[in-house]
Every structure is written in structure tokens, then in C-alpha cells.
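cron nightly-structures :: item 1 of 1
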Amino acid sequence: MTPDTTYHPFQTSSKITDFNLALDVILLAQGFNYRLGSSPLASLSGTGIFVDNPSGSNELIGVVQNLEPQSLDLNNSSQFVFV
């Protein structure tokens, strides 16, 4: 996946460096479609968090460093909370 670089409400991405599966949750805004995948950034390995933008492409909004995509589940409320 290549991140969308055009202007959208989400203009930057976050780097989450010390996410602990036993202690932490990631807060995401309700009303958007999210996807998890490998980080597209060569300098940052881990799980990319992508949001579908109006053009239908996936926009990178964050990277959970050093965790592979299969370690996280958007439907797991102990990992992701939608507010």
C-alpha cells in the first residue's frame, strides 16, 4: 500500500513506539472505515493504521512500531476503542 499524500482531514500520521498489548488501547474516531496493514514506511517497521478517505484510497494515520499486523485486531475492544 502507498499512503495517500493529497489533502484530507487526517494530514499527518502518528508513530506509536511503546504500545503494550496488555495495558494500552488506541482511540480512533467513530464514523470512519479503518484497516490494518504493514507499515509502508521503509524507516518504520510495524503495523500501519489506515483510514478510507473520500477518494477510496487508504490514508496512513499511524504506525504501531514493532508489532506485526496479525498482532492487532480492530474488533478487539481491549486494543481499539472508537470514540
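cron nightly-structures :: done
The radius of gyration is 12 Å.
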